[in-house]
TrEMBL record:
Name of this chain's protein: ribonuclease H
Reaction catalyzed: Endonucleolytic cleavage to 5'-phosphomonoester
A GO biological process held by the record: DNA replication, removal of RNA primer
The organism of origin for this protein: Orbilia blumenaviensis
One Pfam family matching this protein: RNase_H
Length: 162
């Protein structure tokens, strides 16, 4: 049996990269009846300060963790098919192509500089590897217009914390 979990993810940051900036990450799990369950997380300022890119990666982490929790609640241990959709080409390309090159290069990019957001990519990749033991994870880029559920959740979460 295959258990499919589809997420749309998004991240947002007000004051992108500036001291005092505020960020949220959102994962929306779509259910079989076509509705979704949102899970938003306020991201307190960390080091480095929040950015849109960090929020987008943390949304992926939320979705991967959520998939593992949901799997642990299933009694039959089915094959997992986790599908993550994002309107961030940066995150999708990072998790599908670039991350393997970065790992091979010791977390340095093609220009020989350290990869930005390595800490978050390492966390996401570790979670992805856990899921790979019980199934697969795929990432797909979608236009922003197709990611409105997650985008709206981000904006509302930012409004709630300000």
């Amino acid at each position: 049996m295959v258990y499919i979990m589809e997420f749309k993810v998004d991240g947002a940051c007000r004051g992108n990269g500036q001291p005092g900036s505020t960020a949220v990450a959102v994962a929306c799990l779509f259910t079989r009846n076509g509705t979704y369950i949102p899970k938003a997380r306020h991201l307190p300022p960390d080091n480095p300060v929040p950015t849109n890119q960090r929020a987008e990666i943390r949304a992926i982490i939320i979705a991967l963790k959520w998939a593992l929790v949901r799997y642990s609640e299933l009694s039959m241990g089915p094959y997992m098919d986790v599908r993550i959709k994002s309107d961030s080409k940066y995150v999708v390309n990072s998790m599908t192509t670039w991350i393997y090159k970065w790992i091979d290069n010791g977390w340095y990019n093609a220009a020989g500089r350290p990869v930005v957001n390595t800490d978050l990519f390492q966390r996401a990749f570790a979670l992805q590897n856990k899921i790979s033991q019980i199934g697969k994870v795929t990432y797909a880029w979608i236009p922003r217009e197709e990611n409105l559920d997650a985008d709206i959740e981000c904006k509302e979460a930012l409004d709630r914390i300000q």
